Amino acid sequence: MHKESLSMKLSKQLPLNALRVFEAVARLESFTRAGEELGMSQTAVSYQIKLLEGHVGEALFLRRPRRISLSEAGERLLPKVTEGFELLREALADLRNTADGTLIIHATATFASQWLARHLGLFQLNNPGIAVRLETSQEVIDFSRTEADLAIRSGKGNWPGLRAHFVMHNHFTPMLSPKLADSIGGVREPLDLLKLRIIDPSDPWWRIWFTAAGYPDVELDTHQRTRLGAQSFEAAAAVAGHGIAILRPEFYPEEIASGALIQPFELTCEDGSHYWLVYPEARRNAGKIRAFREFLRSALPSFEAMPAGAKS
């Protein structure tokens, strides 16, 4: 009886179901969509939110026509609720003996192919008990909806609810095959690039680079637009002589060493968006995440060289 009464008392003190509903409504910004995700009616969702508001003594949402938003109290509560559920998920994962099982990494196709795939062997050699699954995507994943332990993400390092560690600067410069450069007698000044096919002239990196080179008004809109979706694909097209790509030169040491690609100008630029290791704040102490963090720290001198949210 004592255990039963204690359990009942705890359930009254901590309305877990209402908190779960609150997290879904806040994340989806909709009572209806939260109900669809949780398999509940909109009425049941509203009832759970009212129960929670009664429990805390404050309104958690501002109800407006056709939309809802978090109140000040809701804004204070949401990060703690999100972290609490992440901690619970982590505890369950540990009980299923998966804390040191498979490490699922999401990364951009370029970072995965040009750096991570070349170095993962060292991580696995030093951590034989951890299997690795590498997924690539250009999309920013939602950890609450995607099976992933961590991600390598390009941005400014300020994602709410995620711990972010700086990995490396993401700077860029035009690169092309020497054969393509020779086809116009060589590339000696920035405007020579306009005589050749530019791979994806709509990429804002081109405008940034030409502006830094002293040509802010260069005409790019007249060039044929080809979007290949990832820097690694653009590099392959440049190696094949199909045009000039704007790339991060450190990703292509073998192509540069072999002469397959050349960097005609020393000028490199940045747009403030760099590579970061990210994972849910609540999972920071997971064994496999700690192991991968230490691997990056030993493999990359630039790791954690810049705090999250800092401007380069």
From TrEMBL:
<keyword id="KW-0805">Transcription regulation</keyword>
<dbReference type="InterPro" id="IPR036388">
    <property type="entry name" value="WH-like_DNA-bd_sf"/>
</dbReference>
<dbReference type="InterPro" id="IPR005119">
    <property type="entry name" value="LysR_subst-bd"/>
</dbReference>
<keyword id="KW-0804">Transcription</keyword>
<dbReference type="Pfam" id="PF03466">
    <property type="entry name" value="LysR_substrate"/>
</dbReference>
<feature type="domain" description="HTH lysR-type">
    <location>
        <begin position="14"/>
        <end position="71"/>
    </location>
</feature>
<dbReference type="InterPro" id="IPR000847">
    <property type="entry name" value="LysR_HTH_N"/>
</dbReference>
<dbReference type="Pfam" id="PF00126">
    <property type="entry name" value="HTH_1"/>
</dbReference>
<comment type="function">
    <text>Transcriptional regulator of the ttuABCDE tartrate utilization operon.</text>
</comment>
<dbReference type="InterPro" id="IPR058163">
    <property type="entry name" value="LysR-type_TF_proteobact-type"/>
</dbReference>
<protein>
    <recommendedName>
        <fullName>HTH-type transcriptional regulator TtuA</fullName>
    </recommendedName>
</protein>
<dbReference type="GO" id="GO:0006351">
    <property type="term" value="P:DNA-templated transcription"/>
</dbReference>
<dbReference type="GO" id="GO:0003700">
    <property type="term" value="F:DNA-binding transcription factor activity"/>
</dbReference>
<dbReference type="InterPro" id="IPR036390">
    <property type="entry name" value="WH_DNA-bd_sf"/>
</dbReference>
<dbReference type="GO" id="GO:0043565">
    <property type="term" value="F:sequence-specific DNA binding"/>
</dbReference>
<comment type="similarity">
    <text>Belongs to the LysR transcriptional regulatory family.</text>
</comment>
<keyword id="KW-0238">DNA-binding</keyword>
